[in-house]
Batch of 4 targets.
Target 1
Amino acid sequence: MPELPEVETVRRGLAPAMEGKRIERAEIRRPDLRFPFPENFVQRITGARVTAMRRRAKYLVGELSTGDALIVHLGMTGRFTISHGKKDRKIGEFVHEAGDDPKHDHMVFDMSGGVRVTFNDARRFGFVELWPLAELDTYPAFAELGPEPISNQFSGAFLKEVFAGKKTPVKSALLDQHVVAGIGNIYACEALFRAGIDPRKHAGALRGPRLEKLAHAVREVIEEAIEAGGSTISDFAHANGELGYFQHRFCVYDKEGDPCPKCGKPIKRLVQSGRSTFWCSHDQT
Ligand SMILES: [Zn+2]
């Protein structure tokens, strides 16, 4: 399942192919992904210019000149590929080679300038929606989202406010999308390790300096992962134009029994709210 940094990497890869370009031709090859495509989807986006490619939490948001937002969630296996195509001088059109998995290429955009953007999703947990741009805050998934982890609103002071009086473990509190948007299990584990905080501690019991440290750690792990993803964009573009998935080296996530990178003692695993937490009981107090 792609986490926020992967989605941001996809956004950065899509931006040069889509921003400022018109969707000259759109095609959907089945009526639905996780949900049906919006009504009259192809007609509503054909001819639209993509004025900006943004991201909110784990959603891609293409702002269209028609006043709609094109919202895409990658689900579990959704990925985009970009193909530059070759101009056929005889027919005056761009010709694109078939992708490596044409069976699961469900949505295709031919952008002005000749770039083809293809959405491939083998398991079809991804979905696409159109929503009025001016009312984006009312989109159900966005309505009660907390701040982005790499925004100025997300800080120790903000955590102090939202954690006040909370008896839930800090790990579970961090996964609450009202607290911070788009933080998944992996980055919650990594951030707590970096901040040296026991994941079982009650969120409301943490004091100011530790919350500052935690907010800082969240921002850092996300920014580093985005940076790592960013460095893969050019590789992807050279290889097969695929965007979205890359391997990080994590300190604790999925490392049960491995030596802790700080102290060498084995990383432990526990289950909180049905999710695995990986942590070092020596460094996280
Ligand atoms: Zn350790």
Target 2
Amino acid sequence: MTTATSPYPIGTPGIPWGEVERAQWLSRQVRHRSYQNDVLSVIERLSTRFDVAEYGRLDYSPDHYRLLAIRSRNWREERSVVLVTGGVHGYETSGVHGALQFLDQQAAEYGERINLLVAPCVSPWAYERIHRWNPNAIDPNRSFRDGSVAGESSVLIRLIAPLRGRFRVHIDLHETTDTDESEFSPALAARDGKAFEPEGIPDGFYLVDDSENPQPEFQQAIIAAVAQVTHIAPPGADGQIIGSEMVSPGVIRYAMRQLGLCAGITGARYTTTTEVYPDSPRTTPEQCNAAQVAAVCAAIDFALAQG
Ligand SMILES: [Zn+2]
């Protein structure tokens, strides 16, 4: 654990990391859980009800990961597509398990009305290490650009490329955690040779809309649905959530494409990034997963209601 007052244990303050520091960081990462047991085995069970295909592989020797995408059966060319992504940040557990739970509990029914494409665990190496970065100390969720240096991002871009223009909804499932402030933001600042400035972790769920394509009614429909499951983050005294102006209850905006964020890849009319807060004493892992499922359902319901 690092605090704002003690320097990050790797590198020299003010100097960006080089190869030595990245290798040092990598040597400290420990495998805590199994992608095979937690994710692939669940997808295996789902394969009796959905079409499962490998869309890429990540070779991080000695570890190798098969990336799987799940499609609804009855896929029809004339219908538009909903993309659900989880685990772009591997440590954000409810993003992965919320996507899988959505498939198990809700997707078959929605699949009768719209095409569903789900990539439930975009960053399996980071899922296992409970980390934000890939083994090259790169954040996949700042790397969704053509010619991306993050394999996690480039294979997902390749998966969706043939469907561009047909996406109606993209919902990217994330969490904001206490470790963002205790570990990941300090590590990011150290990596880039910058000073770490804490922003405070909001207590509750919030959404990130796209400032280049704001859809306030869509965001509010999701907030209303999630509020039935878990509490929505209030703004801080400055009217902000995590350093950004709160534009409506529980909603902030980022420039998705400019920042290389996953929610910018499809060009869909309705896009959002969920941010579940799992460290609140007022919630449980089950509620966090349920909040992700409620968000996905509300997003699709809204889009279907628009015709
Ligand atoms: Zn995230």
Target 3
Amino acid sequence: MKSLFLVLLFLAMNFLSTNAHAQTAPTADEAQDFMNKAEAQLADLSVKVQRASWVQENFITDDTQAMAADAIDEVTAATTQLVEQAKRFDGLALSPDLTRKFMLLKLGLTAPAPKDAALRREMTTIGVSLDGDYGKGKYCRKSGECLDITAIEKIMSTSRNPEELKELWAGWHAIAPPMRKRYSRFVDLSNQGAREIGFKDTGALWRSGYDMKPDEFSADLERLWNQVKPLYLSLHTYVRWKLAEKYGPNVVPPEGPIPAHLLGNPWAQEWGNIYDLLDVREDKGGVGINVTELLKKKNLDPKGMVKYGEGFFTSMGFEKLPPTFWERSLFTKPSDRDVVCHASAWDLDNKDDLRVKMCIQVRGTDFVTIHHELGHNFYQRAYKEQPFMFQNGANDGFHEAIGDAIALAITPEYLHKVGLLESVPQASNDIPELLKQALDRVAFLPFGLMIDQWRWKVFSGEITPADYNKQWWALRLKYQGVAPPVARSEADFDPGAKYHVAANVPYTRYFLAHILEFQFYRALCRESGYKGQLNRCTFYGSKEAGAKFNQMLAMGQSKPWPDALEVLTGERQTDAGALLEYFVPLKTWLDEQNKGKKAGW
Ligand SMILES: [Zn+2]
């Protein structure tokens, strides 16, 4: 569901300058010259790397994998070398832009590698093997039928048999224990790489990408979590109560944590799939809007769905996607070969060669994901005139939030405007819609936060391998209020059963994005002149909102993110206020329903 944006590959280059000034103190002009050459070559190499990766993900064979892995190893080596060479400019008085570029260069690798070539290769090899283990992971039932994660997700989204759900949950988590030793070695090697370029550990390097000190950033996340926690608790209380009614107190303790296998998702990260268990029809008379049915009624194919996504952006004044987008993207799963179906957005040439790769099914969740992916593409194109080092999101949360802010504007009013929905339901029926949104977007928040809370502590050494699993579940209990359905021990490695841990993709970006998307959404609503209940706002067709949006997007990563945020919202702080405002009617409704029920676990 969450899509990867290929940023980690962009810092690729072979910088083989003859260092003529090594003996004398470097000047600001030399630093500028160094960076100019670096950017030119980085841009060049990034295209090659992205082409190799595109081919690999569209035609998975041993050969394309080896070629992509070679490219990644080369990138890691070149970047490591470049950061090393850039050290001689440390402490030199440079322009703010140039200072920023040197900082971004240092932060370019998600997994910084040791300088030692043998250790670097060991780390890269482990990284690829963990990613591969996850990709190949399967659970085989007693009947001999083997299920990959897509099949498991599908069954877990609709099965209401707790024994079957428990079996699948435990079966999927059994893919991870073999990763444990390699993962801990990977952590050590990456930490060594981080220390060699001046960071305390890899987690500190990740936190340095937010234009704040790592500790300030952690405190800021805690502030945001405290803002949204009461809403999460109301949702948790209601869902636990309904699940206890459905499955009985022996399966769901009415005042304890929710067993993690019952929420419609192998990680309990988004709960939208169990909406039908929540009894909303009887209470409110409205059933919400079934987008899947609307799409099917219109006989839309995957390409037609993407056209609607593009249409939202062009209605706001953005230019149409180029013809190559339609020629080169992958919209449907090919029947004759393996592809990586995990949805992603690409920018092959850092200019106009934008693409989406996604195995689209005609259903509501995919309609939302299309908007998410196109948000990456329109962002990429908006900042293409920036220097290479600034061709990125203001921070990684911004990049994830753009398309989701648009997706929030897929309201009944919008669906009616574009002819997908015949009539708009009355405002008194908003609760089903809001509850559906909350089951995905609010339920996700503590999960989005806890992944890196665990990982940062692993990188810092505060969590040791002897406690990997215990601490994982301590955090899942603390933030999410969920518990494992079967006994766990240190023979397990449950973090490895989550893609972003196995593949070493930072996760805090998704927590931030889920807050920023509402902040962007509210600002775009204001800009469009909308006045009314926030959850009913759509800015479809608003050129004013589009112009303001573009102004922020075009900045790329050229300035600290609060500057970019201010351009669109007038605010300089990430703020969950917009999210809370959006869900005010739901919060009121939940608290009425929950009266007399214990909140928390
Ligand atoms: Zn994404």
Target 4
Amino acid sequence: MRFSERTAWDLGENSFAGRLREARAAGLPLFDLTISNPTACGFAYDERSLLAPLSETSALLYEPVPLGMENARAAVAAYYRDLGAEVALDRLCLTTSTSEAYSYLFRLLCDPGDEVLAASPSYPLFDYIARLDDVRLVEYPLLYHDGWQIDLHALEASITKRTRAVIVVHPNNPTGHFCSSAEREAVQKLCAERGVALIVDEVFLDYGLPCAEAQSFATGQSPALTFVLSGLSKVCALPQMKCSWIATAGPKADVQAAMARLEMIADTFLSMNAPVQHGLPNWLASRHDMQGQIRARMTENLAALDAALAGSLCERLTMGGGWTAVLRVPRTVGGMEFREAALAAGVVVQPGEFYGLPEGRVVLSLLTPLDVWTAGIEILRKVGS
Ligand SMILES: Cc1ncc(COP(=O)(O)O)c(C=O)c1O
């Protein structure tokens, strides 16, 4: 059977995944510091009120509205109003996931072989989405000097005749880098001058540490056609509800043309379901409780981590927010890579290479329950001493 080239992935297991599978199969006690699924991290969800909208009889009526039902889009507009941004309903498009939103935008902006620029290190999912949409993903570097910055020169130099969009993840996963206001202005100006769109992924925007520049790109005037992405999986810690959105900003004529085409793309799939759209206003309105629980967990875990690593050879890199912490660690311990040595000692960490980080970096999920976290980082400290 012949399959498409775009699905010709190497689906084999890498050696670290193999070792992890074996350790789990052997029933070894493992402290897993990588769990990022909020529904599996011991948070208290208000089950009754979250599930109530799903049984509304009005959800039995099928209303195929390509951009999303009006009440649902109004709830998203209210979310942006709380962030200080006015987003009109005709600038919003609902999707079943942020990944689907990326795919809509790639199909809106790119022909096969066109290029989209994304930061490195960053979230590896973009590679897959771009490949499935026949788009070439080109990396621009994030640099680290006591904090992360966009390499603006490299970003500018990466723009070619085939570039259709620049992706900024604000804050970035896994580095936790928020675009500063100077970077924001520079990227907007660059995109406007070079006629490329700006895609800003703000799924972790609400999880900034107190010092972070956590301003949404939906606020203020953008000289560039801008698509701001977010969704329930992080904003409400409800990944199972499958609901995200695109908020469009920028020059009016570009926005209108983009929305007309996006509406056609959305109409082709009509992927949103009615019960979730009915639930969206309730879920967004009740996000503060869950966000408070997650921020408390992040704060507690970061404090415990910093205390445990003090005086060790491991160092936490400076971050502005998000659900992950990046550690600089010794490359090898006793002849093994650090992550292998950690696994042998009973702790699961994510290899930094997974995100395009250099060797000697590992990534931890700040959602990890405190008991697992405390035990795990104590072992990590010993491994890295
Ligand atoms: C930066 C970033 N964007 C998008 C996503 C995907 O979000 P969704 O669950 O809405 O598809 C993730 C998931 O972790 C992410 O880290």
